[in-house]
UniProtKB/TrEMBL annotation:
InterPro entries: Nitroreductase, Nitroreductase-like, TAT_signal. SUPFAM superfamilies: FMN-dependent nitroreductase-like. Transmembrane segments: none annotated. It holds the Pfam family Nitroreductase. Residues 181-389 form the Nitroreductase domain. GO terms for molecular function: oxidoreductase activity. Signal peptide: none annotated. This is Nitroreductase domain-containing protein. It comes from the Bacteria. Gene3D superfamilies: NADH Oxidase. Residues 1-21 are annotated as: Disordered.
Length: 407
């Protein structure tokens, strides 16, 4: 028997499998989920340690995942923050903290939580803050707090990115609010079923936001061109040692690391099949170059190969902080609307990450002109994502709790 953290002991094949079956179906199925990998565990101390270490048999467990089950229960302004922390953010950096006043919540950027050369202009960081503000507003509305957002009250580069005034109103729990705890970035394969144009249009609700616009890329020729650009950008990003290194520091490999940091990218979020996920967790943690290669491969064979459509959020002023914050609200809204309709979404921002990298290093711009050809004249790209009907459910990723990020 091998025991795993926080759960009943799980039987491991020992080579004595004949005789009357003694396992319950539930136990058997759970073990079968790891197939041959479980058999490997028997008798190998190092591997059985790794089962414990990565919680291979009990994914999404431990306090780092509690915010996903507790967000509805917390009342008042802290409850709204509990919704905010479940928002998407680049590399799951969660670049935020919140200050609660008697009738307000202030949202601050935590500049230490950046991705360096991956996001040299901090555009994605501000988009992530916009995503959090969208969840904060939905959470505030559901608690009857009538939230009103003022962006950047101290100026564009000050730490306070939003002041959210609270009042009292009727509690409104919308379908988007209900989707907060089910929204996850889905990096797995999507089905070949198209998403109807009217459904795509329904995902976009720009009310109350000015600036960003959404362009859907659905037709085969532009979709193929964008797929190629995404693969090329992934390859370029992995060839750029600084970008590769700055992204890699946000990978969390062991159960212990995940519980300690409660942020970053984890195997559970990579959209793998249960069998592959189990095996990957048993193997030693990937090196940076293996991880890069895996990502480029997945981009080519899964992400772009199975995208039903791409969405691109554009603006004429993508460098403007307020535009980035509003684009974040729009992005989070689209993702929640997709979730509520059973549509999967994966953010895919390697092209704009290369555009910003080329711009800030003085390199010849190669990705900006190629992307511009796929967009209406004058519109510049800010965010890219794919959508489709999922073949696999996405899993939650770790989060710091509302109390941890509230000052
Ligand atoms: C601005 C922004 C950029 C992102 N870029 C990417 C990306 O290029 N590729 C990707 O797979 N995920 C990307 N993500 C998704 C984050 O990695 C994800 O939100 C984070 O890991 C938390 O996981 P969750 O969305 O499932 O809660 C991005 C998210 C945001 C907000």
């Amino acid at each position: 028997m091998t025991t795993t953290h926080d759960q009943e002991p799980v039987p491991v094949a020992t080579g004595h499998l004949d005789g009357p079956p003694r396992w319950s179906r539930r136990r058997l199925l759970r073990t079968m989920g790891l197939g041959g990998a479980t058999v490997l565990v028997a008798g190998t101390g190092a591997l059985s340690y790794r089962v414990y270490d990565t919680a291979a048999l009990n994914p999404g467990s431990g306090p780092a995942f509690d915010p996903w089950t507790q967000w509805r229960q917390l009342p008042g302004p802290l409850g709204a923050v509990a919704c905010a922390v479940l928002a998407a953010s680049p590399h799951n950096t969660q670049p935020w903290y919140f200050a609660l006043g008697p009738r307000s919540i202030d949202v601050f950027v935590d500049e230490a939580r950046g991705t360096g050369a991956v996001d040299p202009l901090r555009r994605e960081q501000y988009v992530g803050l916009g995503c959090a503000v969208e969840n904060l507003v939905l959470g505030g509305m559901a608690r009857g707090l009538a939230p009103q957002v003022t962006w950047l009250p101290d100026g564009n580069e000050a730490g306070r990115v939003a002041h959210v005034e609270l009042g009292s109103g009727q509690a409104q729990a919308t379908p988007l609010y209900d989707a907060i705890g089910r929204r996850h970035t889905n990096r797995g394969p999507y089905s070949s079923q198209a998403v109807p144009a009217e459904t795509l249009a329904e995902l976009v609700d720009p009310s109350g936001l000015d600036g960003p616009t959404v362009h859907w890329v659905v037709d085969p020729a532009p979709k193929a061109a964008l797929s190629e650009l995404l693969v090329d950008a992934a390859e370029a990003l992995t060839r750029d040692q600084q970008q590769s290194r700055d992204g890699f520091v946000w990978f969390r490999n062991s159960h212990d690391e995940i519980q300690r940091h409660r942020d970053g990218l984890v195997l559970d979020g990579q959209g793998l099949s249960p069998l592959l996920l189990g095996v990957a967790k048993l193997l030693p943690a990937s090196s940076r170059s293996d991880g890069d290669q895996f990502w480029v491969n997945q981009t080519r064979t899964v992400h772009t190969a199975t995208a039903a459509a791409y969405g691109v959020i554009t603006s004429t002023s993508p460098d403007d902080r307020r535009t980035q914050l509003e684009a974040g609200r729009l992005l989070q809204r689209i993702h929640l609307a997709a979730t509520s309709r059973g549509i999967a979404l994966q953010h895919m921002n390697q092209i704009t990450e290369r555009i910003d990298r080329e711009a800030t290093t003085g390199a010849v711009a190669t990705f900006a002109p190629r992307f511009a050809k796929l967009l209406p004249a004058g519109e510049r790209p800010l965010l890219t994502y794919r959508v489709g009907y999922p073949l696999r459910e996405a899993r939650p990723t770790p989060r710091r709790s509302a109390r941890t990020v509230t000052r």
